[in-house]
Design goal:
The structure holds two protein chains of two kinds.
Chain A lengths: L2 H8 L26 H6 L1 E3 L7 E5 L4 E3 L17 E2 L16 E4 L7 E3 L1 H6 L3 E9 L22 E9 L1 H8 L7 E6 L12 E5 H4 L5 E3 L1 E2 L2 E2 L9 E3 L12 E7 L6 H4 L3 E3 L17 E3 L6 E6 L5 E2 L4 E9 L5 E7 L7 E2 L1 E2 L9 E8 L4 E11 L23 E6 L1
Parallel strand pairs in A: 5-15, 19-26
Antiparallel strand pairs in A: 1-2, 2-3, 3-4, 5-6, 7-8, 8-12, 9-10, 9-15, 11-14, 12-13, 16-17, 18-20, 20-24, 21-22, 21-25, 23-24, 25-26
Chain B lengths: L1 H20 L10 H8 L6 H5 L6 H13 L7 H15 L3
Classes of the chains: A mainly beta, B mainly alpha.
Chain lengths: ~400, ~90
């Protein structure tokens, strides 16, 4: 979209078109410990249009995460799915008949202007159930704290996405030889003209992966506006920074894309997380783009601070996920990490999905009881006990406690 | 630059409307107005509240410089200094 006309159209409304106001007064969320004090002072439960009340971190641009209770279900409802924007120039709504996806650039043999209908009728529609997790999920738990949105554990969700494969669209336009990356833009943008627009690229191999799709549906429904209506890129296994919302432009390039959001942002120290598939055309000796999610898990129930009676059976449930290698086990400790037992894995909804798990134990002694979960994947990777600190607070998969009271 | 100023003015006008909807109260201390007038052009002020208190003066200086150098925030030097003073004093650590 032309920047000038876009901003011109938005200038009167860009700052405040979305807020429904606190939906249920000033409900305070229950938050895990370890976040900056400012999180506890600021967070409220608030509903964006089309959303249920979520934990609000920032208003403009909107950044909202799901409370832990949402993850009792392995599929995240659309209205509970987290919301994350970098820049506040967000269209208040997108008019579907006017929306077009441009597939172009000099490295295609033809240029395409695709309507929503074109994408839905002109290409095979495929489904993938995949976790969309913000790179900075759990940043607020980084020690020491690092600047950015101070996310707790809910900047993630798992949905069944449906739409055409990106590679089918790329092949339709016809890739010329020498393409190294595919570049993606969305309808949202910066407030100021000088601020770098949010533009991301993928290596050609990931763009051509059969699981990389352009989602037109999420859990059988149109995408919520704040999750990228009408079309969003789905990059299973990779963090959400690549999952471009409100997708408007796909370009093929023969040189690595040099924009701010690739060269300066969303990077981790090279070699710090050696298990990752690297993004070779964007890597340098110091830093490399964040790509695959690390293996992780979350205890969804019981909630922190829950009280149970002595002798009662406690049903621990949660989810585990990784970059798509497959969860092989979730170990649970109910004694603060002294002993570990395997949880029972639930329904397998595909290797990119949350994997539910459950573990039952009897609360046989009184006092506080620390429950922990530790997931492992098919590559033999497992959650860490000690944070692998990095300046942006990415890849936090430290084993986390949920403490309950037995009385 | 003229264009940027136009957007700035339009956004500031809209920010007023936003403030009426969800007031984000920063600590009342010298420099607050300068912070509101500059920072709220591009983002709500809850970013400041949640990112506290764990940055020291050096950390807040880096954040303000990032806004100017990476995100092209049109903040004058004197304003930048006042913003850093305010953030370090009210939302910072020693």
């Amino acid at each position: 979209m032309d920047r000038r006309s876009f901003l011109g159209a938005l200038s009167g409304t860009v700052a405040a078109p979305f807020l429904a106001g606190p939906a249920f007064g000033m409900d305070r969320p229950s938050l895990t410990s370890g976040l900056p004090q400012g999180d506890y002072d600021t967070a409220i439960m608030e509903a964006l249009p089309g959303k249920r009340p979520l934990i609000r971190w920032t208003t403009r641009p909107p950044n909202y995460e799901a409370p832990i209770s949402v993850f009792k279900d392995a599929i995240t409802p659309n209205d509970a799915f987290f919301v994350r924007y970098h820049l506040a120039g967000i269209p208040p709504r997108i008019d579907l008949p006017q929306w077009k996806l441009t597939v172009g650039g000099e490295s295609f043999t033809s240029q395409l202007q695709l309507s929503f209908d074109d994408l839905q009728r002109g290409y095979e529609q495929v489904e993938v159930t995949a976790v969309c997790q913000c790179s900075g999920n759990r940043r607020g738990l980084s020690m020491p704290h690092v600047p950015g949105v101070q996310w707790s554990v809910g900047a993630m969700g798992n949905a069944t996405w449906r739409g055409p494969r990106l590679k089918d669209v790329l092949n339709k336009a016809g890739l010329k030889p020498g393409v190294v990356e595919i570049v993606f833009e969305g309808a949202d943008g910066p407030v100021l003209t000088g601020t770098p627009d949010f533009v991301k690229s993928l290596p050609l191999s990931k763009a051509m992966d059969e699981n990389t799709i352009i989602a037109l549906q999420m859990n059988g429904q149109p995408l919520p506006h704040f999750n990228g209506f009408p079309a969003r890129l789905i990059v299973p296994g990779w963090t959400a920074t690549y999952w471009m919302k409100h997708l408007t432009s796909v370009r093929a390039v023969t040189k690595p894309y040099g924009g701010f959001w690739m060269k300066a942002a969303y990077r981790i120290p090279t070699g710090m997380f050696p298990q990752l598939t690297s993004f070779a055309t964007q890597e340098n000796a110091m830093t490399t783009p964040i790509t695959e999610m690390v293996v992780n898990s979350l205890i969804a129930s019981p909630a922190e601070g829950n009280r149970v009676r002595r002798g009662e059976m406690v049903n621990v449930t949660g989810i585990a996920w990784d970059a798509g290698y497959g969860i092989t086990s979730v170990a649970v400790s109910t004694d603060g990490g002294m002993s570990w037992q395997d949880a029972t894995l639930g329904k397998d909804m595909g290797r990119f999905s949350f994997r539910p798990w459950t573990y039952n134990f009897r609360a046989d002694t009184t006092g506080s009881r620390m429950i922990l979960s530790r997931a492992s994947n098919r590559r033999g990777e497992t959650q860490v006990d000690k944070l692998i600190f990095n300046p942006a607070g990415y890849h936090n998969n430290v084993v986390r406690p949920t403490t309950i009271i037995v009385a | 630059m003229r264009f940027s100023r136009f957007i700035l003015a339009a956004t500031l006008a809209a920010t007023g409307a936003l403030a009426a909807e969800t007031p984000i109260q920063l600590k009342d201390a010298p420099g607050r107005t300068v912070v509101e007038n500059n920072c709220a052009v591009c983002h709500s002020l809850d970013y400041i509240r949640t990112n506290a208190p764990f940055l020291n003066r050096q950390g807040w200086t880096a954040e303000v410089n990032k806004m100017i150098n990476a995100y092209a925030a049109p903040i004058q030097k004197a304003d930048a200094d006042a913003i850093i003073d305010y953030l370090a004093a009210n939302y910072g650590t020693k």
